[in-house]
Specification:
Blueprint (H helix, E strand, L loop, with lengths): L1 H26 L10 E11 L2 E12 L8 E3 L6 E4 L4 E4 L7 E4 L4 E3 L5 E3 L5 E8 L2 E8 L7 E2 L6 E9 L4 E9 L5 E14 L4 E10 L5 E2 L7 E9 L4 E6 L5 E3 L7 E2 L13 H4 L1 H5 L4 E9 L5 E12 L2 E8 L4 E3 L5 E2 L1 E8 L5 E6 L22 E3 L1 E2 L5 E2 L6 E4 L9 E4 L10 E7 L5 E8 L4 E6 L4 E6 L2 E3 L7 E2 L4 E3 L8 E3 L8 E4 L1 E3 L5 H36 L1
Parallel strand pairs: 12-31, 12-32
Antiparallel strand pairs: 1-2, 3-42, 4-41, 5-6, 5-9, 6-39, 7-8, 9-10, 9-36, 11-34, 12-33, 13-14, 14-15, 15-17, 16-20, 17-18, 18-19, 21-22, 22-23, 23-26, 24-25, 24-29, 26-27, 28-31, 29-30, 34-35, 35-36, 37-40, 38-39
Helix pairs in contact: 1-4
Length: 555
């Protein structure tokens, strides 16, 4: 009888324990990261003189920490969830505290920017990252630790563009009548070579070609194209004209004779030809294109330099850099100048051939040592004293203008355009590596646990790495209040992993893991527990009645 009562009482105690577990599960059905427990029952036996007698039952709550809860997206970027195995590391102290572990990822920043587990005194731990270097020591994740993105001075400005292969401007058609009374045409094209602001003159290269079926030659009887260097003043009068083939100098406005291939015919082009006497008006400024190049100085200030491209002739362009907004450019001699120029050349196949530094005031290479600064790799540079007092000095902090690989077309190139529109430079892309100061605008956590800060200047940087901690036996962890766990001999030592590597799960930012409690399962278990409890109580009642009957029989 005693054994019967003992077994029944143990059953009542076991079912009470099971009901307590069910109650706790239901209470935490909405708790983030909560892992439902179950009850395991074990029989108890007593042994006397080689025989066993039923001793009842015992109940033990069993953790299932490894169960995966449903992951739901939220609107809070610091909400974190682990998909797979592992825990977040948290601490109860901002400095030097013990490390605990949790699956609850409902983190929020306090007034100092520290991420803490909402509603608790536990802080998220991670490895700080400064200038790309990751610390080897855990610390509390503070999203305000790098709330300012320091400015970076531009060191390289890269350009990818195509320059038109036929960039000479057409002067017009020169008509004349030969000795047979037939009118024929000659075409003239030009490019601007240089401008002398002091003298008020402009120099052009002019090429005269015959129409189809006609051959022309110079005074020596050779050549099929006549080449001249013509200098005009501001009123359009020709100051001088040089034959580019013979080097002869002509004065006034009389141009050299043009000799037809037919010796019986002759024609001359003189100052009475009105198109020549108004040469400057006809030519204008020649083909050129200007744009503003924006770079950043060491203080994060946007600085502007005007870049002008001018066609010099076949496969050759003039690149002129001019100061703007009060900046002063510095040439390779250390002199302050308002502008300097480079000759940019292309190979016959249209690929980039390189740059040549020009002397101040020159617009084409003449053998004189150039004063426009170049890098050790032969690239053009912007060397300047900016208006805010900062500087870009040659050889130290100058801005390199990257026009691509010599012999390649990865930067600038010179190919004919298929477009029927006016000749123009086609810019494919341009970029520079500087930026202004920025303030923290948002924080996000990626699948690898990188805490990425985004700034108002468009830059972003990893400021922390949140590890995923795994154990040999996660179900052996000791559960504490607030959804945290403590390592034990049963769980084994903590192993810190980069999220998504080894056995560690990945991290989902802006998401939370739901409780693994199923209310349907818990209510079903509650019914079973209630029935078992009632049965045990009935055993006690029956035992009591039997004992009463026995006592009555004895009496």
């Amino acid at each position: 009888m005693d054994a019967t009562l003992s077994s029944a009482v143990s059953a009542l105690l076991a079912e009470s324990s099971a009901l307590s577990t069910i109650s706790n599960n239901l209470a935490n059905s909405e708790t983030t990261g909560y892992k439902a427990s179950s009850t395991t029952f074990s029989s108890l036996l007593t042994e006397t003189s080689g025989t066993t007698t039923s001793g009842g039952v015992t109940a033990t709550a069993r953790q299932n920490v490894t169960a995966q809860g449903t992951i739901t997206s939220t609107s809070v970027s610091t909400d974190l969830a682990i998909s797979g195995a592992g825990m977040f590391a948290v601490t109860s102290s901002l400095t030097g505290g013990q490390t605990y572990y949790t699956r609850d990822g409902e983190f929020e920043s306090d007034s100092s920017g520290n991420l803490y587990l909402y509603g608790t005194n536990y802080y998220l731990e991670g490895y700080s990252v400064v200038d790309g270097v990751t610390s080897s020591t855990l610390s509390v994740v503070n999203i305000d630790s790098q709330e300012i993105s320091e400015p970076k001075a531009t060191t390289t400005y890269s350009l990818s563009a195509n320059f038109p292969a036929t960039a000479q401007d057409e002067l017009g058609t020169l008509s004349y009548t030969n000795s047979s009374g037939t009118t024929e045409d000659l075409s003239a094209t030009y490019v601007e070579i240089s401008t002398d602001s002091t003298a008020g003159t402009t120099t052009y290269d002019v090429a005269i070609d015959a129409a189809s079926g006609t051959t022309i030659s110079d005074a020596s009887g050779s050549g099929s194209q006549l080449l001249y260097s013509v200098t005009v003043d501001s009123s359009g009068s020709i100051v001088s004209c040089y034959s580019l083939t013979s080097g002869d100098t002509y004065s006034g406005t009389t141009l050299p004779d043009i000799t037809p291939s037919d010796s019986s015919s002759s024609v001359s082009l003189s100052s009475d030809y009105t198109d020549w006497s108004s040469f400057a008006t006809a030519i204008g400024t020649g083909f050129s294109s200007s744009t503003s190049m924006t770079v950043y100085d060491s203080l994060g200030t946007a600085e502007s330099v005007t870049v002008t491209w001018t066609a010099l002739g076949d496969n050759t362009w003039l690149m002129t850099l001019k100061s703007a907004d009060g900046e002063t450019l510095t040439d390779s001699n250390g002199s302050s100048v308002s502008s300097y120029s480079y000759e940019v050349s292309f190979n016959s196949d249209g690929t980039y051939a390189g740059v040549t530094s020009l002397a101040t005031g020159e617009t084409s290479a003449s053998g004189t040592a150039g004063s426009a600064p170049v890098s050790s790799l032969g690239e053009a540079e912007i060397s300047a004293i900016w208006s805010d007092g900062s500087s870009a000095s040659t050889g130290t902090a100058a801005v390199t203008i990257d026009l691509g690989t010599v012999g390649g077309a990865d930067g600038v190139s010179q190919y004919s355009s298929s477009s029927s529109t006016a000749v123009s430079i086609t810019v494919n892309s341009y970029s520079q590596d500087g930026y202004a100061e920025g303030t923290l605008s948002s924080v996000a956590v990626d699948s690898s646990g990188d805490v990425v800060a985004s700034y108002s200047n468009g830059k972003s940087a990893t400021i922390y790495v949140v590890p995923v901690v795994t154990f040999a036996n996660e179900n052996g962890l000791t559960e504490l209040s607030d959804g945290v766990y403590e390592a034990s001999t049963s769980s084994g030592s903590a192993v810190y992993n980069v999220a998504g590597t080894g056995s560690a799960g990945t991290i989902e930012g802006g998401a939370l893991e739901s409780s693994t409690v199923s209310t349907t399962t818990e209510f079903a278990d509650m019914i079973v527990t209630q029935q078992a409890y009632s049965a045990a109580a009935q055993v006690i009642s029956t035992s009591r009645e039997m004992f009463t009957s026995l006592m009555q029989a004895i009496a």
